UniProtKB/TrEMBL annotation:
UniProt KW Acetylation keyword: no
PANTHER family assigned: SGNH HYDROLASE-TYPE ESTERASE DOMAIN-CONTAINING PROTEIN, THIOESTERASE 1/PROTEASE 1/LYSOPHOSPHOLIPASE L1
Protein name in UniProt: Lysophospholipase L1-like esterase
All copies of domain SGNH hydrolase-type esterase, residue ranges: 6-191
């Protein structure tokens, strides 16, 4: 039995564009679990607003680096760690781009490989470059001002980080785009597409 920990933000948590949360069967980690089979465990540890390494002055507890070790110990031993973070890094008040988001992901990779007090082996890492941001609407339009162009560079920088650190890489922008409803979050089809793409990426390394 493999344990797959999905560590992400609202796109992993299951935010519905413009408000609400999808029922479990429509969130991509749950769909992935169905594809892998019930004898494996896929854990959804997404949190809306989570960043790679930044402290958000408006949202408490969103620094991904601060909580990763606790998550790995809580759910460990973790066989596969899926990291999909960086979208929130592009919010205007952080004033960073895709390059800095990728460097934040690299810090998460390093953190996941630090020996832990329980002797758990380091997980296999899957790095997902977040989908490109479309035209944010509603309450997110101001927060993500300038993020559309920045998000176009996720793929390049994340692929470099994944290759340098010997991680499996998946470019979400290559298989889907966010919902046009709000330009950031995934629709139901996007969740399904991402689950199937990730299944293809990891199925051969998971023992039945």
């Amino acid at each position: 039995m493999a344990t797959i920990l999905c560590y992400g933000d609202s796109l992993t948590w299951g935010s519905i564009p413009n408000g609400g949360r999808y029922p479990k069967h429509l969130r991509w980690p749950n769909i992935l679990n169905d594809l892998l089979g019930k004898h494996h465990q896929v854990i959804n540890f997404g949190l809306p607003g989570r960043t790679t390494i930044w402290n958000d002055p408006f949202l408490e507890g969103r620094n991904g680096l601060s909580y990763l070790q606790a998550a790995l110990e809580t759910f460990g031993p973790v066989d596969i760690l899926v990291l999909m973070l960086g979208t929130n890094d592009l919010k205007r008040h952080f004033n960073v781009g895709a390059f800095e988001a990728a460097k934040g992901v690299e810090k998460l990779i390093e953190k996941s490989r630090i020996p832990n007090p329980h002797g758990f082996p380091s997980p296999t890492l899957v790095i997902i470059a977040p989908p490109n941001i479309l035209s944010p609407t509603g309450s997110m339009a101001e927060s993500f001002s300038g993020a559309i162009e920045k998000s176009q560079h996720f793929h390049q920088y994340y692929q470099d980080i994944a290759a340098h650190n010997k991680c499996i890489f998946l470019n979400a922008a290559g298989v889907l785009q966010p919902s046009e409803v709000d330009g950031v979050h995934l629709d139901a089809q996007g969740n399904d597409t991402l689950a199937h793409a990730l299944h293809e990426a990891i199925k051969d390394i998971i023992q039945s």
